[in-house]
Design a protein that fits this description.
alpha/beta; TIM Barrel; 4-stranded parallel beta sheet; two-stranded antiparallel sheet; binds flavin mononucleotide
Length: about 160
């Protein structure tokens, strides 16, 4: 079989196909399903220390209308980060690395403007065995009132 392996920053991928953070990375069950289907790696859905502050709405897509008419020209995704408890995520990451040691697992994390919170989440998630991190400093509908996501990414001083 053709060898598609690739090593990026020390992370060895069976193939260079990695699914971005979002609905396919909602929990260990769906991430495992993607691994079984052949994906080389997964970026899990973004999570934070306190899921109780995350209130998702339904539906999660907003219409984007044309400037000059009422015509709908697209949809904007307004899904927030994961509303699953942090401890569940730690268990999921541990279980996935145990069951799929050769598949790459990137944890996507987001926190408030508090150094200790970022240090805690990185330390604890790293201990589960994940291969890398995505620091979510760009989510446009992250929680701006808590200076999270894009609100942080737009401000080099807090980054
Ligand atoms: C419903 C939905 C939820 C998403 N949730 C996250 C998220 O939690 N964290 C994140 O970093 N990106 C999130 N994204 C962004 C995706 O990871 C990706 O960057 C984006 O969809 C662009 O890639 P695409 O053009 O392949 O869709 C989300 C996207 C969608 C559509």
């Amino acid at each position: 079989m053709t060898d598609l392996t690739i090593t990026v920053n020390g992370m060895k991928f069976e193939n260079p196909f990695l699914l971005g953070s979002g609905p396919p990375g909602t929990n260990a069950k769906v991430i495992a399903r993607s691994y079984d289907l052949g994906w080389g790696g997964m970026v899990a859905k973004t999570f934070s220390l306190d899921a109780s502050k995350v209130i998702n709405t339904a539906p999660r897509y907003a219409k984007v209308r044309a400037r000059t008419s009422d015509e709908v020209i697209g949809f904007q995704n307004i899904e927030l980060i994961s509303d699953r408890p942090y401890q569940d995520w730690l268990d999921d990451c541990r279980q996935l690395k145990k069951n799929y040691p050769t598949k790459m697992l990137i944890a996507s994390v987001m926190e408030e403007y508090k150094k200790e919170a970022w240090q805690q989440i990185i330390r604890e998630v790293q201990e589960t065995g994940v291969d890398g991190f995505e620091l979510n400093l760009s989510c446009p509908h992250g929680l701006p009132e808590r200076k999270m996501g894009m609100a942080m990414g737009e401000n080099p001083d807090i980054v």
